[in-house]
Amino acid sequence: MQHSVQLDWITPDAERVIARHARVSSKDPEKEEYAKLIKYCVRQGHWSIFEQASVSFEIITSRAISAQIIRHKSFNFQETSQRYCDPLDLLEEDRCWDFDLRKQDPKNRQNSTDNVDVEVASKFKQRISDYFHEGKKLYTEMLEEGIAKECARNILLMCSPTKIHITGSVRSFIHYVGLRASIETQKEHQLIAIAIGNKLSPILPTTIEAVKVLAQNDHSLRGWFNITYR
Q1: Rounded-to-integer distance, Cα 106 and Cα 101, Å
Q2: Active site residue 230
Q3: Is the domain covering 1-230 a CATH 2.30.29.170 domain?
Q4: Nearest CA to 1 among 128, 96, 127, 131?
Q5: Three-class SS string for the chain?
Q6: Of 102, 180, 222, 230, which is the active-site residue?
Q7: What residue segments make up the domains of the chain, in order of their start?
Q8: How far is CA 105 from CA 36, 55, 109, 208, in A?
């Protein structure tokens, strides 16, 4: 399925706000220049100042991936309720069943590889499509017979789409992208984290530039190496 990431909002002039809070004890918190200060704070690990600006994103993904995202407890979430709406309406095309098929890495249970035989993939793709559409038909018939959405949703597959809004501090997103944009993360989740990183980079240029420098020696921030925005 197609995953999407859209910026909802970010604290206006976020880096200037962060710098002003970093200078809360100084005589001139509104000092014009702040790039050196932000880079210094990143380099020294003074992360608390990056809690003074917040960001929110809208993400459309599968229920399988949203379950991974909401495990990040430093964020706040709102998710489209399947008690009120048909989750399949989130997609313009009925293709959520068309997800990647990869082989299990025999040496790392957290990793998968792209070397699935074409014929094998084709065979399972057809069976997955049939399985999904039979489930969709059953779901629709249940609703038509008056079964509540909160009950009917139990038969939907994990590939069914969902929309979540994720809100958190700049600090939280720095560390989220650092972790989840790395190759150790499931591909679909990794692509979401990369999209978030690419959207933050032009808005927080000084911060992200400093984070990328720090990531050279901080393994927990390695995901930022996969952020390509310049």
Answers
A1: 16
A2: no
A3: no
A4: 96
A5: CCCEEEEEEECCCHHHHHHHHHCCCCCCCCCCCCHHHHHHHHHHCCHHHHHCCEEEEEEEEEHHHHHHHCCCCCCEEEECCCCCCCHHHHCCCCCCCCCCCCEECCCCCCCEECCCCHHHHHHHHHHHHHHHHHHHHHHHHHHHCCCCHHHHHHHCCCCCEEEEEEEEEHHHHHHHHHHHCCCCCCHHHHHHHHHHHHHHCCCCHHHHHHHHHHHCCCHHHHHHHHCCCC
A6: 180
A7: 1-230
A8: 44, 35, 6, 32
pLDDT in tens, the chain (230 residues): 678 999 999 999 999 999 999 998 887 777 888 999 999 999 999 999 999 999 999 999 999 999 999 999 999 999 988 888 887 777 655 688 889 999 888 888 878 888 788 889 999 999 999 999 999 999 999 999 999 999 999 999 999 999 999 999 999 999 999 999 998 899 999 999 999 999 999 999 999 999 999 999 999 999 999 998 75
